[in-house]
Every structure is written in structure tokens, then in C-alpha cells.
Amino acid sequence: LAKTTQPISMDSYEGQEVNITCSHNNIATNDYITWYQQFPSQGPRFIIQGYKTKVTNEVASLFIPADRKSSTLSLPRVSLSDTAVYYCLARRALTFGSGTRLQVQP
Amino acid sequence: EAQVTQNPRYLITVTGKKLTVTCSQNMNHEYMSWYRQDPGLGLRQIYYSMNVEVTDKGDVPEGYKVSRKEKRNFPLILESPSPNQTSLYFCASSFGGQETQYFGPGTRLLVL
């Protein structure tokens, strides 16, 4: 299983761009990288998924280098409502790990 | 509306009293799974099911049972609950193991 490692927490201010990097050194050839967002007492919610290079949707961008051993979730111009825990997963979502707790300040 | 539902949402019980938490999805998903979430430990998978009558253990299966008799339902059974099973439980479903998972609202369980 591809184990992922990401920072435990990050702080930011409203309007800033936030980049959360996740390492997945043992990712398999056919594994996708998926990011989820979770608010307190709610189930995780899908944000973005990618396999290589760059993926962008209305919420975020996902950057994956050629070796695919890491990925970076980019949240443009965060707001207070982006305060949440963000999880990075590689391969089947067996274990979410502890995620990155993002705190956005006014 | 496409959704995953769980019942009950909150449950207080006593040690040893069998209980079942139901999970149902209306998206015709083949893959379903159960997670528990504890402070500082993230979400850990308990059991998953790739399709009807196909189930397998996740990371923390001890003390739990599941069944998948119908595609839409995936109940979680605690035959003899213990206090260390006090947790927040989430059910999730997807078309496949690699696909986006849709999560239920969670069931908060307290075992006294």
C-alpha cells in the first residue's frame, strides 16, 4: 500500500494561496491520487483527483511531478470556510491517515 | 438526490449489547466501506465490500462484522460492543475502489 505523509497542520490568512504537499514514495503505477476535505462532524468530501501533471477544477489544482512520488494540492485565495482537514490518498482509500489541519485566519 | 444514509446518527449503548448501524446508498455503487474516526488517528477503514456477497477486512476489523446481501446496503454489526469502540463511524460508497468515495453523515457511538 502506498503510505502517504503530509504536514499535520498549516495556518494561512484569507485571500492567500495555500499549497499542501503530500509524499507517496511507494505509489504504484496504476494508483490515482485523491484529495478530500473534511469539516468537523461531517464525512470527507472529494476535492480533486489526478494521475500525473496538473489537474484543475473549480475548487483547487493538483500538481503531480513526473516521478509521482509527491503531489501538491493548491487552494487559491482561501477563505475562512476553507478551514478543514485535508486528506491525501494514493491507491484505494483504505486509510486516510491524520490529514492536514488547515486553519484560515481573517 | 444521490446520497449515502446512515442510521442511527447517534447511539448510546452498554457493553455487550449487540447493535447494528445501517448504511444505504442510492447511486448503484459497487464499492462500499466502513471507517471509524478517532481523535488524532484520522479515518481508519474497518471493512469494505467490492460487490454483493464480497467483503474484506480493512485496517481495524476486530470486533466488527459486515454483510452485503444487497448492492445498496452495507450494515455494520457490533456483536458485543466494548468501550474502545466508542467512535465516529462513516460509511462510504463508490463505483470502484479507486473512484471518488461518497460519505454518509456519520454515526456517533458511545459504548458505556
Strands of the largest sheet of chain A, in order across it?
1-10-8-3-4
Task: Report the uncertain regions of chain B.
Answer: none
Assembly of the depicted chains: heterodimer
**Over the alpha carbons, how many angstroms does the gyration radius of chain A reach?**
13 Å
Order of helices and strands of chain B: EEEEEEEEEEE
Calculate the mean pLDDT score of chain A and round it.
Answer: 90
Task: Give your account of this protein's structure.
The complex is a heterodimer of chains A (106) and B (112). Chain A is mainly beta and 106 residues long. Chain A contains no helices and 10 strands. The model of chain A has no long low-confidence stretch (mean pLDDT 90). With 112 residues, chain B is mainly beta. Chain B is built from no helices and 11 strands. Chain B starts with a strand and ends with a strand. The model of chain B has no long low-confidence stretch (mean pLDDT 94). Chain A binds chain B through residues 31-32, 34, 36, 41-46, 49, 87, 91-99, and chain B through 4, 33, 35, 40-45, 48, 58-59, 88, 90, 92, 97-98, 100-106, 108. β9 of chain A pairs antiparallel with β5 (42-51) of chain B.
Topology:
The complex is a heterodimer of chains A (about 110) and B (about 110).
Chain A: E1 9-13, E2 18-23, E3 33-38, E4 45-50, E5 53-56, E6 61-64, E7 70-75, E8 84-90, E9 95-97, E10 100-105
Parallel strand pairs in A: 1-10
Antiparallel strand pairs in A: 2-7, 3-4, 3-8, 5-6, 6-7, 8-10
Chain B: E1 4-7, E2 10-13, E3 19-25, E4 31-38, E5 42-51, E6 54-57, E7 65-66, E8 76-78, E9 87-94, E10 102-103, E11 107-111
State the gist of this model.
By secondary structure, chain A is mainly beta. Chain A has no helices and 10 strands.
